[in-house]
Amino acid sequence: MQQEKRFDKNTLVALILMGVLLLGYFYLNQPSEEELKEQAKQEQLAKEKNSQKEKDSVAAVTNNSATNAPTDSTVLIAEAKDFEAENAKFKVKFSGKGGNISQLLLKEYSAFDENAADHKQPLYLIKDGNNEFNLNFKDKSGREVNTSTLAFSPSVQKSDSVTIVTMTAPVEGGKLQYIYTIGTNYTIGFEVKSEGIHQITNDKNLSVDWELKSTSSEKGKQQEHYWAQTYYRFKGTNDVEYELFGADEWDEKENIDWIAFKQQFFSSILSFDEGFQTPKGGSVAIDAEVDPLHSKDYHFTALMPVSGSELNYKMKWDFVPLDYRLLANNQYEGTDFDEIIPFGWGILGWINKHFFLNIFQWLANFGMNYGWVIFLMTIVVKLVLSPIMYKQYRQSAMMRILRPELNEINEKNKGQDNAMKRQQSTMELYRKAGVNPLSGCLPALIQIPIFYALFRFFPNIIDLRGQSFLWAEDLTAFDSPISLPDWVPFMDGHISILALSYIIAMVIYFKVSGSMESFNQPPQEGMPDMRIMKYMMYLMPVFFFVFLNSYASGLSWYYLVSNVINIGIVMFIKNVMIDDKKIHAKIQENKAKPKKQSKWGSKMQQLMEQAQEAQKQQEAQKKKKK
């Protein structure tokens, strides 16, 4: 049987003696006061020496960059991990893996969140791995090197207004640096530098790849998709290109000096003054049911030449709100970034930039709600167009008064054989009465560019973004006070009250203005039957409602106010300014006056007479043959 172990007194005595000996040893060998001072002095000198080495390292990085660092800068050395920085406009994070921008938050804006109490959440243009920038080349053994997989270590230099973040990665005996310069605006300076690049690769070009999944930040998802695409500018020109309709895929042979991934109200832009070679890119819409966090998947690839002994690329990142006042000022002079805002081409863009935008901003300076700004803006526009509207309605009244005489001419000159005579008599009546049937069309043609320009204006003016009015939460998106089941076609699960109100006002305007009367007349001989247009006039409001139901509520509100004002103007013109009896008397007076025919009218009369004579000869020849 195994015996139970008991405590040994001799062991206890031995442990006590060993403890006493150790205490005596430490007491007899402790350093003197002079030795302690000397040791502290040596530690301080070593610490200062290491600090100087760190300063020298940052100074070397700063000298390699194109930015002149302030003399009063405070130098910090960050560890090899992600690094965050910020200014008044944004917060940004740089990733240790790939050295890329891994997060960027715009401070002055918010994103729409249907589930939040106030429907707002922080607006991130970059977050959760949705952004990747990569330089690709082959080393001398033929193996591909992708910078997005390299480990970068940050070093940082700060001053009161400038932060320089240098991300450095070792590459097979050399090193690669991404140097980011953060100032006070939306721009981040971006330089790519190398040491020993020709010891690594013999490639004459590097491939640059940039991919971004844009975050979904707007209420109107259809509009967010529609107004989002890639923009770019050809190097050395003012030619800004984009693909708005159809697939946003492009491939160019000419160099471009910037590429923009445009969302509805924000854009991420990479600029390179030397020019990206053989660029290609595009964007693909992301299904909200598959990925509700993102709206578009952007991609861009190009080549950058390897010239000189080392890499030395100077680029810029701009993460900007698409505010015309910001992009058209001195800071971005010469960039043409303001062309990214889709106000329209040609006359449409001019109307929006120099007419609607100026009126809108002038009224907004009074500090009222933006819904009332649109209301007053509508009044201003209608006052400007009211003379055109008066002239158009007056011509319609004159044509209405002449209708019995026109019917009489048609009755006297029936048949295809009298078509030329009928036309001559009609033109003669117009000439004597002083009526130009085409003059009523000209005012309508003038209003068409204004009408269409508004389709571009309201969904793309950032001032209205997130601004509420009445029951509308956002004047750049649809208002949705009434929800519908998803199975209801074309309605996208809601009814826009502003759009519906506009359609009702449109129908009332048709009735009041007499627009339908011209389509109720029986057709003239040889002319198409216009009565079918009456049904089109009834169908048009239905098409407009389906379209505007998911469009910017600011546009529906503008059209509603505009049509109500139109109804009032027509009623005033019809009952106060225009008297049918006076117009009839004026027409009779014009008929009595001798008319001096113009050269153009005389020429037209001569041509018509020649045509009539030629027609008679053809008919005579036909009778002889018979």
Summarize the structure.
By secondary structure, the chain is of the alpha+beta class. 41% of the residues lie in helices and 24% in strands.
Structural write-up:
The protein has helices at 9-28, 33-64, 221-226, 324-327, 346-364, 370-412, 419-433, 441-457, 497-513, 532-548, 553-577, 580-592, 599-625; strands spanning 74-76, 83-86, 90-94, 101-112, 120-126, 131-138, 144-146, 153-158, 163-171, 174-182, 187-195, 205-215, 229-234, 240-242, 248-251, 256-262, 266-285, 294-305, 312-321, 482-483, 494-495. The protein has 626 residues and is an alpha+beta fold. The protein has two domains: 62-342, Beta-galactosidase, Chain A, domain 5; 353-599, no CATH class. The chain has a 15-stranded antiparallel beta sheet that branches. Strands 2-3-4-5 form a four-stranded antiparallel beta sheet, with no helix packed on it. The chain has a two-stranded antiparallel sheet with strand order 20-21. Helix 5 packs across helix 8 (441-457) and helix 9 runs antiparallel to helix 10.
